[in-house]
């Protein structure tokens, strides 16, 4: 059984014919109508050599003869060739409405690319329910968010590598300079190079089965014998948050049953708890409620967006900032369980040093000087000699 592959072309005008054309079947039809390879080639605006080669190549690919090759005789299709034409006619007759609908859908999708008022913004981000809602909101306004969810560390790395225009990550409200969040993100984010954008506040907590049958009350229960915890992957913002909370409470990860068991998203953690394969996991309230779970709030955190300073003036970024600042968007955020746009400065460009107080001018200058010395050791020698 040979498989079918579909392709399409972009052109200034569309044919009134709704059929999907196949060059081989067009050639077979021409040979049958014209009675010779040369006449078929002329009718298609092709050379004899091209048509003859295409037919021979098709016979080799399909493993069947298509033409009765007899010198001095009118060219005829083999029974297999005739069946191919018959099968196409049957398929086209049955599928013409679906084919036309598909073509219309593809045209509408591509029309956005030719619309100067529409924009696409590639965003790599830590998994978040508000971002999913934002994608629906912006699409109706001509801004199409191409969101790819991944760990916070990987999202910022993708931004720095030029694979996306913006990244999303989350931290506690004002994480300390010696926090695990600072260790995870300080090297990736640079004042003067990156710009922080306010987005939302959200609540992180423990997702437990409906009715909380295990009587879980807080973080200290993670070490209780018999309880099965489900973790997020290393490099995710929620994993960084958990390790931060454990360090602050003096708990060791080795004391937690299931610490090494990982899921890729809040939704996956919630599903593991809902299915009974785990008793609790750390995540957002929206994911817990979606799966019918109870939620025990632990900490409020700030979800950040970040881009390069050079990207701030780009049309997609400016369009996003306007939407984030709108009352309509902030009302949408307020309706999401565990989320708030109040005092989150949504859509505002924020000071990196003020909201992530991990840097000082002196430390930054020393680091810059050290980097310069490593790049230009001769200049350093000449300065020291002077």
Describe this structure in words.
The protein is α/β, with parallel strands linked by helices and 386 residues long. The protein folds into 2 domains: 23-113, Arc Repressor Mutant, subunit A (Orthogonal Bundle); 119-356, D-Maltodextrin-Binding Protein, domain 2 (3-Layer(aba) Sandwich). The protein is 44% helix and 18% strand. The protein contains 15 helices and 12 strands. It has helices at 23-34, 37-44, 48-62, 79-111, 129-139, 152-160, 180-185, 237-249, 266-275, 285-290, 315-325, 327-334, 352-355, 361-375, 377-385, and strands spanning 67-68, 76-77, 119-125, 143-149, 166-172, 194-208, 229-232, 262-263, 280-284, 294-308, 339-340, 349-350. The strands form 2 sheets. Strands 3, 4, 5, 6, 7, 8, 9, 10, 11 and 12 form a 10-stranded mixed beta sheet that branches. Strands 1-2 form a two-stranded antiparallel sheet. Helix 1 packs across helix 2 (37-44) and helix 2 (37-44) packs across helix 3 (48-62). The longest helix is centred in the N-terminal third of the chain and has 33 residues, at 79-111. It is elongated, with a radius of gyration of 31 Å. Residues 380-386 have low confidence and may be disordered.
């Amino acid at each position: 059984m040979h498989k079918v592959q579909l392709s399409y072309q972009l052109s200034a005008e569309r044919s009134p014919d709704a059929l999907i054309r196949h060059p081989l079947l067009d050639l077979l039809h021409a040979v049958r109508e014209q009675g010779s390879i040369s006449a078929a080639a002329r009718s298609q605006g092709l050379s004899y050599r091209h048509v003859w080669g295409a037919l021979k190549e098709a016979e080799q690919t399909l493993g069947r003869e298509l033409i009765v090759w007899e010198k001095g005789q009118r060219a005829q299709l083999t029974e297999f060739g005739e069946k191919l034409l018959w099968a196409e006619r049957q398929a086209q007759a049955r599928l013409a409405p679906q084919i036309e609908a598909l073509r219309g859908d593809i045209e509408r999708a591509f029309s956005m690319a030719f619309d100067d008022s529409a924009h696409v913004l590639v965003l790599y981000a830590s998994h978040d329910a508000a971002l999913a809602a934002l994608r629906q909101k912006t699409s109706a306004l001509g801004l199409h968010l191409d969101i790819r969810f991944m760990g916070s560390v990987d999202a910022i790395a993708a931004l720095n590598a030029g694979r996306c225009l913006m990244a999303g990550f989350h931290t506690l409200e004002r994480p300390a300079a010696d926090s695990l969040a600072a260790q995870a993100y300080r090297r990736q984010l640079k004042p003067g190079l990156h710009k922080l954008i306010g987005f939302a506040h959200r609540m992180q907590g423990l997702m437990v089965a409906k009715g909380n049958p295990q009587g879980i009350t807080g973080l200290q229960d993670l070490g209780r014998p018999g309880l099965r915890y489900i973790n997020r992957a290393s490099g995710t913002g929620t994993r960084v948050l958990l390790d931060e909370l454990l360090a602050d409470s003096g708990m060791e990860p080795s004391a937690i049953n299931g610490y090494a068991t990982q899921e890729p998203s809040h939704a996956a953690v919630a599903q593991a708890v809902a299915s009974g394969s785990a008793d609790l996991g750390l995540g957002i309230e929206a994911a817990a409620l979606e799966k019918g779970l109870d939620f025990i709030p632990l900490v409020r955190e700030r979800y950040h967006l970040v881009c390069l300073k050079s990207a701030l003036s780009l049309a997609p970024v400016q369009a996003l900032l306007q939407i984030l600042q709108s009352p309509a968007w902030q009302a949408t955020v307020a309706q999401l369980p565990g989320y708030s746009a109040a005092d989150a400065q949504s859509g505002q460009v924020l000071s990196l040093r003020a909201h992530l107080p991990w840097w000082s001018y002196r430390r930054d200058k020393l680091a810059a000087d050290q980097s310069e010395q490593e790049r230009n050791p001769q200049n350093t020698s000449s300065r020291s000699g002077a």
